[in-house]
User: Fold this.
Amino acid sequence: MTIDSKDLDHDAAFAALADPTRRAILSRLADGEATVNELAEPFDISQPAISRHLKVLEGAGLITRRVDGQRRPCRLAGGTLEELEAWLDMLRRALTANYNRLDAVLADEMAKQDLKKD
Amino acid sequence: MTIDSKDLDHDAAFAALADPTRRAILSRLADGEATVNELAEPFDISQPAISRHLKVLEGAGLITRRVDGQRRPCRLAGGTLEELEAWLDMLRRALTANYNRLDAVLADEMAKQDLKKD
DNA sequence: TTGTTATATAAAGCAATAGTTATATATTTG
DNA sequence: CAAATATATAACTATTGCTTTATATAACAA
Assistant:
């Protein structure tokens, strides 16, 4: 396998998060379930555009939709969110773990150069 | 102000993370500093393409570059990473905090419907 | 059943993005 | 100084993504 399927999920999820309208939708959903129209209301864009954004968010595993009569209430979804956080956390940990050593080396080199300058 | 400048940063950062090549570069950088050519080597794409990806990552605040002769060693950058994690964490917390209540309500309605069925 | 409401899909336009090749710039090395 | 190395920029193309309007579908209400 060339690309991990998890990685493809990350593709879709991060791409979904790259749009400010979609992040605003997620923020709104943090307060609880909302229907498509409720989600569309604060925005100046058309309802079909919102539907499309929701499809993207659902495809990315960031929300789920249930059926309630003619409504399709949306809610935040768990799994993907945790995976993304875990991935970012891996980077952050690596950063603090691997670069302190490097910083010391670089600082040392700087010091040597300063000495040479004299 | 209509849009928070933080939010624009998130735009750039999440968009940067949406590309698998760029995520692979970040993963590589988790092991420590690397030059442009070192970063380019594992990929089938051209060096200019890598330079462009690095520019995107730098613009997103995810890496920094220093000058070392003709090399431009890249390293992970902190701040943005933590902000993204914090944002995702906000969502995740809201999810567990606000939806348990809702789940109870929904489960309750389900139960009522089951009773009505009789 | 007819009108209305909630949402989805389709078609089309435009802007942004990632890739390419060719070339420029700066640094190192002989 | 000349050749080689490391990286950046430019110009161009192809693809993708967001938006819109128009229309379809499904549920509800009268």
About this structure: The CA atoms of residues 2 and 8 of chain A lie 11 Å apart. Residues 78-118 of chain A form one domain. The helical segments of chain A are 5-17, 20-30, 36-40, 47-59, 79-117. The first strand of chain A starts at residue 63 and ends at 65.
